[in-house]
Amino acid sequence: MSELTLSPESRPLGKSGIMVSSIAWGMWRFAGVSVDDGRRLIEAAFDAGITLFDTADIYGFDGAADKERGGFGDAETLLGQVFAESPGLRDRMVLATKGGITPPTPYDSSPAYLTRALDDSLRRMNTDHVELYQIHRPDILTHPQEVARTLEDMVSSGKVRAVGVSNHTIEQTAALRVFLSIPLASTQPEFSPLETAPMTDGLFDRTMAHDVTVLAWSPLGGGRIANPVTPREQAVAAALDVKAQAAGVSRTTVAYSWIMAHPARVIPIVGTQNATRIAELRDVYGVRWTRSEWYDVLVASRGEQLP
Question: What number of other Cβ atoms are within 10 A of residue 27's Cβ?
């Protein structure tokens, strides 16, 4: 029986010409630690073969009524401090950030706001460009033609090399693509063994048809795969454990590999802030799935047999 194998080799970020690692490190909890600790985490990610680092201007925000006093921008600020002390790290990194979430509004993708948000992000991160800029969530009150023009201006300015979207529906992405003269390099949906909608609602099919890279957020189901509570979560954990025990790796490692086995070549965004767990990411590439094993996890997630 043929096996589904994973490759640690870099792959293109959509049609951007940028090469990225097959796993990304997410920085939504990259705040509140020292610069030295932050640098050690980044170096651990490099040691695990990761080159793609995902952040956003809102990372660090604690939900306060006043975003400026609620930690908005803290993850980017810490990263900028790391770069100031160790500038060589920036040159080794494919850096992605996002903008458009504006608590408590909650969203703003107007040209004036996004232009300012990008400049603010670059200032906080102590860099003059990012490889990827994504609209974090869609702003219903901004016409996609305006968003497209803003993204094109970002690229033409040299401040951004490639653009993408996050948490957009298929139709929202399609509407934006109509007005863009440059390709969308990425889309960032939630995807995990507990959240499988992108496989069946057409999103993955569209990304494969248009050569768009999928960056999966919350690949461990918001921690529910590691700590399952409901019968469904426990069933998925049990299905993953069968493979984990056979492969001699952790359940989380198997969950990442299950995601990456999909032919859309999904890149999971791993959010652990533990250097030891970051190092375990190398184990992902040793997991080989049979089709039967892979589908067993999907059946557990669905709670019923496939038709």
Answer: 27
Rounded-to-integer distance, Cα 172 and Cα 184, Å: 12
pTM over 0.70: yes
Alpha helices for 107-190 (secondary structure H): 111-125, 144-156, 170-179
CATH 3.20.20.100 fits 8-188, yes or no: yes
172-227 tens-digit pLDDT: 999 999 999 999 999 999 999 999 999 999 999 999 999 999 999 999 999 999 99
Give the model confidence (pLDDT) of 55-97 as tens digits: 999 999 987 766 666 889 999 999 999 999 999 999 999 999 9
Q: Under 8 Å CB-to-CB from 126, ≥6 apart: which residues?
A: 79, 80, 81, 83, 84
Domain ranges of the chain: 8-188
Active-site position among 59, 107, 133, 285: 59
Task: Please state, in angstroms and rounded to a whole number, the distance separating the CA atoms of residues 4 and 205.
Answer: 19
Provide the 8-state DSSP code for 195: B
CA distance 49 to 280: 11
Which amino acid type is present at position 201? Answer: D
Residue position matching structure tokens 């401090």: 81
Residue 295: active-site member: no
- Give the per-residue pLDDT at 66: 66
